[in-house]
Structure formats: C-alpha cells, structure tokens
Design a protein that fits this description.
CATH superfamily: Alpha/Beta hydrolase fold, catalytic domain
CATH architecture: 3-Layer(aba) Sandwich
Strand order of the largest sheet: 1-2-4-3-5-6-7-8
Number of domains: 1
C-alpha cells in the first residue's frame, strides 16, 4: 500500500487538540473543534487519517483547524482495525532510510534491526486493514443518514485514508441508490490507488467535486502519474464539470507533508498550511 514515507514525519506537539471523543455508529470518533462548532453546522466532514490513526495528534489538530475555518462539523473515526501504527515507527523508518557510512558496522546492524522491527509493524497493518472498507462505508452512510435537511457530507483522506475517501466518493448514499454518498472530496498524498482510474471513477459516477494536494517528490505518485491523473480528469470532464476538480502540486514536498510536515522545514511546513487552506476552501465551496 505504501512507501517508506508513509511512516516518516514529525509529531506536532506544539498544541493540544480541542475536540471531544464519543462513539458514533459503533466507532470511537474524535469530534473536532469546540462545542459551538460541533453543533452549529448542518454539514459534516469525515476526516480519514493516515496509517498512524489516533496515535498521531497531528490529525486531530488538523481536523480542529478544518472545523474552525469551515464552521462544519468534522469527525475523525478511529477506523483502523487494531489501531494505527505506533509512533515508534517514525524513528524506526528514519533509521532504516538514513545514510550510513560503509565503515559504520554498528550503524548497519542497527539499520537491519530497525528494518526487521518495521516489518513486524507494516506487514500486520497491511493485513488487518485489507478488508476495512465495508466498515468505513457503513460509518459514512450512518453519518450521512443523520445529517439534518440541507446538510452535506464531505470526505478528507490522507495517505492510507486517501484510499478510503476515494472509494467513498464512488458509493451511493444507500445501497443500490442513485444519489451520491459524498458531496465533496479532498485528498492529500493518497496511497494504494491506481494511477488514474480510481480518481476519475469517483468523479464520473456521481460528479463528486474532487481536490488533491500532492508533493512533486511523492514516491507513491510520481510527477508523471500525477500529470496522467490530471490529464485524464481534464479529458473526461472538459466542458462539463471542469470546475469540479483540481490537482495542486506542491514543490519540494514528499509524501505525507500535509499531515506530518516538519515545522523546522520552512518549505514543507508552509506547503502543509497551503494544503489545509486548499481543503478548507474546497469544502466551503461545495458543502456550504
């Protein structure tokens, strides 16, 4: 499903999340923002995390920002079976991918040990999440069904969550129905998807507005793959729904930047802020 960058990045410990947790449709859920934000909006955004799930506070902080800036309810389900990968994975992957001098025997030994430990995390994660989508779909349909009259549903997916949110955009609100489940979709550096087919299909089936943020150094989707996605979207929808999709490429950014950017890396950190605002503008446009 992934590349090494799916398990690298920084923990954002500079702030505390402001939301609350409760069980919605059988799933522990973080409801972002303050109580006034949570109860004020008809529309809801489902925020589907990367592989770290609730273990990484970054996702909750970003969801809080979405709630504050859009005025919509933002829910973050703890949907990963067995929970997200542990934060210790960040250091392990850093050890695996950092250069080691040829003469540094202890460094090479530690790299091998770290790789073995990484495999004991990554392989089980891939296995236990292989059949998770029906649970994600049931949750999203439950959230959709409880929206008040006039309410709309958005989905935001990151890395592993981008696969889930893209698949949600292809689904009807009810089994066998003809109305879309998702009213607007944003994804940042998605993982586990086909080069272009899945992205186009999500828009084609229900004309779901689609926005993607991607770095030009992403190892999951190369520059050529992103160009192919954008070209196919333009070809498929030119003159019809051309304003309903966008692909923004962020220079000098790799996979995971929108959630796990290093605050000390100015370019990456600024790009994360721009990607957040991209999502906020998209949801305000189509869910308001």
């Amino acid at each position: 499903m992934s590349c090494p960058d799916c398990f690298k990045g920084s923990v954002h410990g500079h702030a505390k999340s402001t939301g609350t947790e409760e069980t919605l449709h059988g799933v522990l859920t973080y409801i972002a923002g303050s109580a006034s934000t949570q109860n004020a909006s008809k529309s809801t955004i489902i925020f589907i995390t990367d592989a770290f799930g609730f273990n990484l506070v970054n996702s909750k902080l970003l969801a809080d920002y979405y709630a504050e800036k859009t005025g919509f309810r933002v829910v973050v389900p703890d949907i990963i079976p067995g929970g997200g990968v542990p934060l210790s994975t960040l250091k392990l992957m850093e050890a695996v991918t950092s250069p080691v001098s040829w003469w540094n025997i202890s460094g090479h030994i530690w790299r091998v040990v770290s790789l073995i430990r990484m495999l004991t995390v990554v392989i089980p994660f891939g296995l236990r999440t292989r059949g998770v989508f029906p649970k994600v779909l049931a949750y999203a349909r439950g959230i959709k069904a409880e929206l008040p009259a006039g309410g709309k549903l958005g989905a935001a997916g990151f890395c592993w969550g981008g696969l889930q949110s893209t698949k949600l955009s292809q689904e009807p609100a009810v089994e066998g129905g003809s109305f879309s489940l998702i009213d607007a979709h944003f994804t940042a550096h998605p993982a586990g998807l086909k080069e272009s087919g899945d992205f186009v299909e999500g828009v084609r089936k229900f004309n779901v507005p689609f926005s993607m943020a991607i770095g030009d150094q992403d190892f999951v989707l190369s520059k050529d793959a992103v160009a192919n996605i954008e070209a196919n979207l333009r070809k498929e929808f030119a003159g019809n729904h051309e304003q309903h999709y966008e692909v923004r490429i962020y220079p000098n950014c790799g996979h995971g930047f929108a959630v796990r950017a290093d605050p000390n890396k100015t370019v990456e950190n600024e790009a994360a802020g721009k990607a957040a605002d991209q999502a906020i503008d998209w949801f305000k446009r189509f869910l308001g």
